[in-house]
Task: structure prediction
Amino acid sequence: MSTTMKTQIIEAPLSYAGAELRPHFILSKFKIQGSALVAFVGPCDVKTEELVDWEDRLASDSIQAREMLHFLGEFFGPTLREGVWIQRVLMSIASDVLRQTFSVSVVREGDDLWISDRKMSVSIVTSSAVSQLLHVGINIDPTGAPVKAVGLAEFRIDPRIFATEVLARFSKEFESVHEACTKVRPV
Result:
């Protein structure tokens, strides 16, 4: 597994429709090779047929929001189970940043962020033939969401400032895990 995590905020707006969750999308679109996590702002409109979550797909669900902060990741080496752990760590970091930096009373339940009974995020991990793929969407303007939702705009949070802090903490955590693995003796 790679010892570093490449992170980048993409300045240009980009829509997310589900097809972006594929191997080497980050490499082909942004020229970032290896394990990486990028963040960008744009609308979200994932039709049922693009969903990779079978529970949601069988329920004919969809994902929509006028504007989201998207985190798109590709990780080379981990198993699907490890990819889900990476997802949970990322969501924990996002909830920590919301609470500690922006004083938002957010609750993380599994891979979702909630404020009271309103959903703030969507999140999924899946496997490709070569990697684990992750998408997290944090609502900015949840207009159009098929569920009760809340977004960063309601709290006047600049999504790029939020993303910068989340990416920095995630990269540090990723590298810290690698370091922890290199400093122990076998027993």
The chain has a mean pLDDT of 96. The longest helix spans residues 159-182. The helical segments are 25-30, 54-58, 80-102, 159-182.
